[in-house]
């Protein structure tokens, strides 16, 4: 029998980030994975800005950017011809320290996260499977199997990050309503003899009941192809790339040479009925799966992990009330439901066979999208939506007050400073803190000191005003970089009441 505070089932990006955040917050988890190593046929290609901001808190965002490829442009194709180009570049300039879309394949991504976890002193237990578990009220007793041997693991909490066929979700008896797209998808790693995606650009190809994406990969110099198998071949169980080569090459304008690997899969759109049952939690694909439209899936799972990790660490270390951990499900399940509905609509519009869908692909998207994105406000709106920097928790029990344009539950807006400094630098502490943009009153300083809360006072600048902050207002910031309490008048009592209500203490 072995004991751990947190048992994580699944070593994909969600489970790895959960383990990394917990470890840096002072909780050493145990992480198991039934497979023998990182995934090979990975489908997720895009790392969004919000994920990179989390990685900056953990200390390795620059390494992820170095290994990936920032995308400068998207080429839109329809019916085998390029119809327009959308400039991306630093589309979110001034909104994030990472104002771009990063191409970084999930297999490379998982290896990097695994390296970071090993360096932090936690080893992934490969070929180890969750057999069953029981929540006794004050702990979870799990049976694990490796090879032919079984052991019992006693954990304070169990986290299911084990994908669409989650053993944790099934063990909890939690429903997974939704559906499965009729299309079969493929993913392949190929050498492009001609065409393909070059440098810092990717191809997005649409057609009736078809879809194709082509991304460059820095680590191999190859191209990653993702798309829909032709309907005439969708029923085959023995498909190879050669079977779909003609249709793929025609759709995306590529001539393929060597094929490193090829795989097919089904895509679902589902959200679990609950993300928490007792001492067990669901995160990532175990809780929600949806179409690849917008490159949101993996990034949403990583967002789940960060949201859950700081709450688990705080409760385990007696630095917050249990009610803080209770906010995980309402915060994340609302976003998952909205995301699944949105990506489903976008996917159906993009690949539909009707006349309206064809007009959308051939005329509206190629002509209207570049025109609209020429306006700064539209570019900003599109960036915030896709990058997940707009994601907020207005209905969370942890979200209180407003000051300027910022409400409790909003992501703390990024404010660049001089000499490379900014207001995100203190977030590396992974702890609660107070931000003031302007001068802090003596009463507030004393209240923060009494609560052992770090207080960071930043100069009032045009950047702070543009970000929607209010001069001299109080912003209590959570360990994940979201505003918990916003108060326009630096009300020291409001700060004290919030701290007392949730029994918050810092790690310092």
TrEMBL record:
GO terms for molecular function: FAD binding; oxidoreductase activity, acting on paired donors, with incorporation or reduction of molecular oxygen, NAD(P)H as one donor, and incorporation of one atom of oxygen. Keywords: FAD, Flavoprotein. Gene3D superfamilies: 3.30.70.2450, 3.40.30.120, FAD/NAD(P)-binding domain. Its cofactor is FAD. It holds the Pfam family FAD_binding_3. It comes from the Bacteria. Belongs to the PheA/TfdB FAD monooxygenase family. This is 2-polyprenyl-6-methoxyphenol hydroxylase. The lineage of its organism: Bacteria, Bacillati, Armatimonadota, Armatimonadia, Capsulimonadales.
